[in-house]
C-alpha cells in the first residue's frame, strides 16, 4: 500500500482520488436469528425433553406464526421449536437443595401405629370369662363365635370407610372426611352388632355384649386413626392395657374386668365423637338439631341429582343444548339426558371402596385361619395366637418399609437414564424392603411364640413358612393398594380365603400344609402383579 491511489482516467490532478465505499452488510453477513434465539432461551431449551415443550414456550411469549415466518424464515412455531431443539444440547440441571420426597416418614410413628393395632388384643385377655363356654360346632368356645363374626364384619366395613375418608382427605376436604366418618361409623357399629347377634347361637349375653362393644371400638378407632390421632388412641387404651398386664400376675375379679373394658371403650368412643362432632355444628351454623337435619338432607341430595362445587343440585337445564322448556316432552327428555351425561362424567371419587372392603375381609379371614386353623379342623392343639400377634405388630414396620420403597423408587426414577435402569433400581428397592419386612416378621413370630404360654412349637418349619408367605401376601397387598391397584389384590386375597375355607369345609389335608400352599399361591400371584406395576414409570407418580 506504499504506492499512490489510482485515479480514474480523464480526471484532473486536483481531483480527490477514488476511495472505495464501504460495503453495506448483506443478509449472509448477519447472525442467524435462530442462533440468537437459541442463546436467549438456552436454559429453557436445554431442559426440554421434546420440541413441543419449546413450542409451548414460544407461544407463551406471544410469537405468532406470521411473526415467526417474518423473523426466522420457518413455517410456524413447531418448525422453529424443532430447529431450536436440534441446535441446543440437552442438559437437565439438578434442582437446588435436597429433592422433595413426599414418601419420607418417621419410623417411630409407624411403629406406634403397629402397637395401637395390637393393643386391643389385650381386651380378649380381660374378656376371657365372657367368651368362655362349651365348644361349639367349630371347635371353639361358644362365646368366641360372635366375637369373630363381628370382628370380620368390622374389618370389612371399616376398611372401606377408611378408604372413603382418606379419599376426601387427599382432596383437601377434611370436613367431608369427618362427615363420611360421622355417617358411616354408626352404620358399621350397628351392622357388626347384628352380625354378632346372628352368629351368637348358644353364646351368652355377655359374649354378644362384648362383640357389640368390639364393633363400637373398631368404628371409633377407625375415626381416630384416619384423623391421625394415634397417640390419643394409645392413651385411651391405657386402662385396659394396665388391667390385662395385672391379670398375668394376679387374678382380677370379673366386675373389675368389665369396668376396665367399658372405661377404655367409653374413652375411645368419646374421643372419636369429639373428632367428628364439629361437622354437625358447622352444617347447622351452631345448632346441633339443624346440623343433623342438614346432614340428612345433604345425603339425600347426593343420592339424587349430581351436585355442583358447593353441594347445590345442578339445574335441570344445565348442559341442555336446546334449552327445552319445562313441561314439554322434549324438555323433560333433555333434562333427563343432561342429568345422565352429568352423572356419567362426574368423577368417581369412591370407585375403589368396595375393593378395599373386600381386601379387609379376605385378609381378615386369612389371619383368622393362621391363628385358628388347627382348632377349626378339629385338631387338639393350642391356638396359634402368636401368628396373629406377630402379623398385627408387623404392620408398623410394614408401613414404614412401604414408604421406604416408594421413596427408593422415586430416587431411582430421578437417577435413572433408561427404562431398564429404572426397573433395576425399583426391583432392588423392592427386594430390600420385602426382605426387611420378612426379617422383622420372623423375629416377631419367634418372640411371640417363645413368650406365649402353651404356644405351638416355634421351630415348626411349615408353620414359619406359612407365616412368612402370609406376610408376603399382606405386604404386597399394601403395596398394590398404594399403587391404586386394589382390584387385583382384593381378588387374589378373597380367592385365597375361599380356597382355604373350602379346604376346611371338606377336611382336605393338614391345615398347616393347606395354609402353606394357599399362601404361597397368593404370594406368587401378587408378586407378579407387583412386578408388572413397578416396571411402569407412570405407576410411581
UniProtKB/TrEMBL annotation:
Keywords: Membrane, Transmembrane, Transmembrane helix. The chain crosses the membrane at residues 110-132, 138-158, 179-200, 206-226, 233-252, 258-277, 353-372, 384-405, 426-452, 464-483, 490-507, 513-532. The keyword Endoplasmic reticulum does not apply. Residues 1-34, 302-330 are annotated as: Disordered. Residues 1-10 have a biased composition (Polar residues). This is Uncharacterized protein. It comes from Streptomyces triticiradicis.
Amino acid at each position: 500500500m506504499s504506492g499512490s491511489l489510482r485515479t480514474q482516467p480523464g480526471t484532473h490532478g486536483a481531483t480527490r482520488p477514488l476511495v472505495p465505499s464501504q460495503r453495506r452488510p448483506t443478509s449472509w453477513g448477519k447472525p442467524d436469528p435462530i442462533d440468537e434465539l437459541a442463546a436467549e432461551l438456552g436454559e429453557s431449551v436445554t431442559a426440554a425433553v421434546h420440541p413441543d415443550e419449546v413450542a409451548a414456550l414460544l407461544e407463551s411469549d406471544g410469537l405468532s406464526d406470521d411473526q415467526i415466518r417474518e423473523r426466522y424464515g420457518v413455517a410456524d412455531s413447531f418448525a422453529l421449536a424443532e430447529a431450536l431443539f436440534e441446535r441446543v444440547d440437552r442438559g437437565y440441571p439438578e434442582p437446588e437443595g435436597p429433592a422433595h420426597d413426599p414418601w419420607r416418614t418417621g419410623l417411630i410413628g409407624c411403629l406406634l401405629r403397629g402397637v395401637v393395632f395390637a393393643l386391643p388384643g389385650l381386651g380378649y385377655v380381660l374378656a376371657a370369662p365372657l367368651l368362655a363356654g362349651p365348644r361349639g360346632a367349630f371347635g371353639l368356645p361358644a362365646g368366641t363365635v360372635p366375637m369373630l363374626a363381628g370382628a370380620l364384619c368390622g374389618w370389612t366395613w371399616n376398611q372401606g370407610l377408611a378408604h372413603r375418608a382418606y379419599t376426601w382427605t387427599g382432596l383437601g376436604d377434611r370436613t367431608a372426611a369427618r362427615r363420611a366418618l360421622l355417617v358411616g361409623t354408626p352404620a358399621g357399629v350397628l351392622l357388626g352388632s347384628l352380625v354378632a347377634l346372628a352368629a351368637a347361637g348358644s353364646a351368652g349375653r355377655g359374649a354378644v355384649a362384648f362383640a357389640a362393644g368390639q364393633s363400637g371400638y373398631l368404628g371409633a378407632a377407625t375415626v381416630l386413626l384416619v384423623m391421625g390421632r394415634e397417640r390419643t388412641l394409645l392413651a385411651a387404651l391405657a386402662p385396659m392395657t394396665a388391667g390385662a398386664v395385672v391379670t398375668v400376675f394376679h387374678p382380677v375379679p370379673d366386675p373389675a374386668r368389665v369396668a376396665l373394658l367399658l372405661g377404655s371403650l367409653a374413652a375411645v368412643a368419646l374421643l372419636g365423637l369429639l373428632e367428628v362432632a364439629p361437622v354437625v355444628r358447622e352444617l347447622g351454623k351452631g345448632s346441633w338439631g339443624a346440623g343433623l337435619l342438614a346432614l340428612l338432607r345433604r345425603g339425600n341430595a347426593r343420592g339424587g341429582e349430581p351436585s355442583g362445587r358447593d353441594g347445590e343440585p345442578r339445574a335441570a337445564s344445565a348442559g341442555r343444548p336446546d334449552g327445552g322448556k319445562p313441561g314439554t316432552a322434549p324438555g323433560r327428555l333433555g333434562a333427563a339426558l343432561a342429568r345422565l351425561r352429568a352423572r356419567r362424567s362426574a368423577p368417581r371419587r369412591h370407585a375403589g371402596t368396595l375393593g378395599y372392603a373386600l381386601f379387609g375381609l379376605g385378609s381378615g379371614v386369612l389371619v383368622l385361619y393362621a391363628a385358628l386353623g388347627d382348632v377349626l379342623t378339629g385338631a387338639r392343639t393350642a391356638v396359634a395366637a402368636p401368628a396373629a400377634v406377630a402379623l398385627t405388630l408387623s404392620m408398623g414396620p410394614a408401613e414404614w418399609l412401604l414408604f421406604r420403597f416408594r421413596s427408593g423408587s422415586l430416587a431411582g426414577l430421578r437417577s435413572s437414564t433408561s427404562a431398564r435402569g429404572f426397573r433395576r433400581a425399583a426391583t432392588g428397592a423392592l427386594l430390600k424392603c420385602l426382605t426387611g419386612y420378612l426379617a422383622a416378621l420372623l423375629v416377631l413370630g419367634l418372640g411371640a411364640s417363645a413368650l406365649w404360654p402353651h404356644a405351638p412349637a416355634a421351630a415348626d418349619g411349615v408353620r414359619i413358612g406359612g407365616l412368612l408367605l402370609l406376610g408376603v401376601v399382606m405386604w404386597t397387598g399394601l403395596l398394590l393398594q398404594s399403587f391404586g391397584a386394589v382390584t387385583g389384590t382384593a381378588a387374589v386375597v378373597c380367592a385365597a380365603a375361599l380356597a382355604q375355607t373350602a379346604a376346611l369345609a371338606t377336611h382336605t389335608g393338614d391345615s398347616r400344609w393347606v395354609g402353606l400352599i394357599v399362601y404361597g399361591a397368593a404370594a406368587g400371584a401378587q408378586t407378579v402383579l407387583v412386578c408388572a406395576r413397578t416396571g411402569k414409570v407412570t405407576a410411581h407418580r
